[in-house]
Amino acid sequence: MSAVNITNVAVLDNPAPFLSPFQFEISYECLDALKDDLEWKLTYVGSAEDDTYDQQLESVFVGPVNVGKYRFVLQADPPEPSKIREEDIIGVTVLLLTCSYVGQEFIRVGYYVNNDYD
Predict the structure, then answer these.
(1) How many domains does the chain have?
(2) Per the confidence metrics, is the pTM higher than 0.70?
(3) Where in the cell is it found (predicted)?
């Protein structure tokens, strides 16, 4: 059984313009006290073919975490358009929300993102 259970992830301000910050309300529960921090990361996948175009938008440490229920909003700046290949700016890509404990990733939540223009 896991010491940490993600109970909900809500995408806030959806849909939003490309250059707006991303916001996720993350709810989780801790079943055992953790002496070290949880690390939450948000990564924008810049290209399906080449992970060198991926951009880590945010990384935050939360903890130490006691037994209980928690909720917080993770806000991240948008990706830097100049670091995305021109052919990959418009269309579908992925945002990855991950959580790690002591360097060990234990959850990965992916979201499809459709970038379009008016």
Answers:
(1) 1
(2) yes
(3) Nucleus
